[in-house]
Design goal:
13 helices; 2 domains; Rossmann fold
């Protein structure tokens, strides 16, 4: 996830701030404690607030169904105010003072790494429910978001088939953008294409005029843009304003993950190709029921986005593992997670890869249409092949590495 998330989704953040589900508290010793540490204020709150809403909804549903192991689930939540230093502080407080049974949280990769070792040292299971660059190998953590290979393996051939073989890559200049750009290049070449340019941009760059001129000169058939954050949202507007949207195909591995597509006008966003685990447009019983529950709790479903659903599914996966284990013992929980556990969530079936502790999940090829995401095709049960190439927790259960995957 990005190193710099702006609050450019003010409408979504405002809706997310209207959470009406209460904290769930019971007598001491009579609850299972779920620790939450998220950016629910500050620069990343457009992502964190809907994730917090998803957590409250999931816990409310678990408790209404009787709780876990005969106990209610109690949420112990901290707002990091988008300050990485507070992640370390609250991570220690959750594990050492609050003595929670599990922690779900973190948005940025930096926030995950700020608390991951604390969770490991205190034997507190940790669920990171966000798309990221791949490569974390740690038996104490479970990761439920899509990785670059899961996205790019689906998106690149689809977009190339629709537009052509010459591809230009525009990416954020940090680990997520750099690693994702390499995966995109790999899949372009494997599908008989050619990358005619790769440019990287600092997260505060908002003027893409010279870049658009450079792309015009290179004359690709397709631009793929792993651009990140509020400043980079400017690219999509400037691309449309320059008249490029109908001349050169455009795809992205980030556009819309936090409802950015709702900020663009239909004229600016229509036709952008994406691939994610979730779309509100999915017409399935599980997703329709989820949206109804969300609307009943919060008034409407406009705040739902990819990260919120990933967080919701992560909590439901944990609950299923607790029920299967019949215990809150850490090793029993991990063994249950590694047993082939799967759930049916709003985004489809999600199962746990025991080799990497990453999610095997459906990836939906979509196009942005009238500020929504129209599903074109669903690719079922995509494996986290990037992390599988470096991580094998079955063979090396003591591994504790964030690998930089070579492509």
């Amino acid at each position: 996830m990005s190193l710099n998330r702006r609050t450019f989704l003010k409408g979504t953040a405002a809706t997310a701030g209207a959470a009406i589900l209460p904290n769930i508290l019971s007598a001491a010793g009579d609850t299972i404690k779920l620790g939450s540490v998220l950016d629910t204020s500050g620069g990343f709150d457009a992502y964190g607030k809907p994730m917090e809403m998803a957590l409250r909804l999931a816990v409310s549903e678990i408790n209404e169904a009787g709780g876990l192991l005969g106990k209610q689930v109690e949420v112990v939540a901290y707002d990091t105010q988008s300050d990485m230093a507070l992640y370390s502080q609250y991570g220690q407080q959750l594990t050492r003072e609050d003595k929670v049974d599990v922690v779900h949280g973190g948005i940025l990769s930096a926030s995950r790494e700020a608390i991951r070792q604390t969770m490991r040292k205190t034997n507190t299971p940790f669920f990171y429910n966000v798309l990221y660059e791949g490569g974390v190998c740690d038996r104490n953590i479970f990761i439920n978001g899509v990785t670059p290979a899961q996205q790019a393996a689906a998106l690149v051939p689809y977009a190339m088939e629709k537009t052509g073989k010459k591809v230009y890559i525009l990416a954020a200049d940090y680990n997520y953008g750099q690693i994702t750009a390499r995966w995109i290049q790999k899949f372009v070449e494997e599908n008989g294409g050619e990358v005619v340019g790769v440019d990287f941009f600092a997260l505060d760059v908002s003027d893409f005029g010279s870049t658009i001129a450079k792309v015009q000169t290179a004359a690709p058939d397709l631009v793929i843009a792993p651009l990140v954050g509020g400043a980079h949202l400017s690219f999509f507007r400037q691309w449309a304003a320059a008249g490029m949207k109908d001349r050169i195909g455009l795809a992205s591995t980030t556009m819309g993950v936090g409802n950015e597509h709702k900020v663009l006008t239909a004229e600016e966003g229509n036709g952008i190709m994406v691939a994610y685990n979730y779309s509100q447009e999915l017409d399935t019983p599980a997703n329709n029921a989820f949206k109804e529950s969300w609307s009943a709790a919060y008034g409407d479903s406009s705040a739902i986005h990819e990260l919120a659903v990933s967080h919701y599914q992560g909590i439901k996966t944990w609950a299923a593992a607790v029920a299967l284990a019949g215990s809150m013992d850490r090793d029993a929980l991990i063994n249950a997670m590694e047993s082939g556990l799967s759930i049916e969530g709003p985004a489809g079936n999600l199962s746990v890869d025991p080799q990497t502790h990453h999610a095997v999940l459906d990836v939906h090829l979509m196009e942005i249409e009238n500020q929504g995401m129209r599903v074109i095709e669903t690719l079922p049960q995509q494996q986290p092949i990037d992390t599988q190439s470096v991580c094998d927790l079955q063979a090396n259960p003591d591994d504790n590495t964030q690998y930089e995957i070579e492509i």
